[in-house]
Amino acid sequence: MAILDLHSVYDATGSTDTIVTENNSNAVIPANDGATTIGISPFANAVLVAYGAHVAAAAQAIVALGLQSNNLVDPVNGLTDSVNTTPTITSTVKTKFATTTYARGPNRVQYGQEAAGGILTFKIDVVGVGQSSAPANFALQNVAEYSFASGAATAGVYKSTAFNPSPSPPIGTYRILGTRTYGLTFGAAIRFQHTDFGGAFPGYPVLDYGTGTATSANQGGNALTSDSWQGYQFVWLSQALGIPLCPQFTIQGQSTGLNVQIIDCTTDTAQFDLILQKVA
């Protein structure tokens, strides 16, 4: 059993040109995040696989991103990008990948910004609950797409929306392939909630689809948040990390039991295209 688990920390003021840890005095764990201590997973068997940050505007570009953890090979220096106070690439989201098995202490995401402003940091773990799978190739069969809106999301607060289309999808087992997300100023993090996920919240960072914000400049060259992979983020993560990571859930009646949660650096009203694949 393995599934992704995303958690966030929000800092309303941020930091200019200097790396600071996410547990500074201004950073908070958003309500309903599921974590109780910054940088520590609710799951004892967590393996960190990715971390990153979002900012609310191009002028607040991410100029540094790092990770500090007792679980790293070099816990003193950690993993750190060089600070670039005059970036040629205006990155409003950055995601980095590092496999770190949790043993002790917090995994702290670090960041620096071109100008101070609201910043959302996130980390993604693989945990041993729930059930995930992945398609063998891109000759996808039994795929369904559903569009729905989240309602206004306040900066730094999770907005949860129930996925209950009418009529309900056929009873069965589905894997989530990903989402296309519209209506974002720049970016956000999306995650999913279902009882089949064992308390984990599989998710990923997103940029606004099809409007130019999901370009190589804004997303720091990371394919995960590019337009090409929106709608198939869990497929991309499965390929990049080498393990099946499309979360599976079962629909048993009129209510799917699935909730989509979004957290943003600004107040946006998101629209989702949710892509599912029926597997049983």
Please bin the fraction of helical residues: under 10%
Architecture per CATH nomenclature, i.e. the level-2 architecture of the largest domain: Sandwich
Please state the overall shape, judged from the principal axes of the Cα atoms: globular
Q: According to CATH, what is the topology of the largest domain? A: Jelly Rolls
* Rg over CA atoms: 18 Å
Q: Give the count of helical stretches.
A: 1
Q: How many strands in all?
A: 18
Distance between the termini: 18 Å
What is the CATH domain class of the largest domain? Answer: Mainly Beta
- Overall pLDDT metric: 86
Tally the structural domains: 2
Order of helices and strands: EEEEEEEEEEEEEEEHEEE
Give the helix/strand class. Answer: mainly beta
Low-confidence parts, pLDDT < 50 over ≥5 residues? none
Please tag this protein with its features.
single chain, mainly beta, Jelly Rolls, five-stranded antiparallel beta sheet, 1 helix, 3% helix
Outline of the structure:
The protein has one helix spanning 233-241, and strands spanning 3-11, 20-21, 27-28, 47-55, 62-69, 79-80, 93-101, 107-113, 119-127, 132-133, 143-153, 159-163, 172-182, 187-193, 203-207, 246-251, 258-264, 268-278. With 280 residues, it is mostly beta strands.
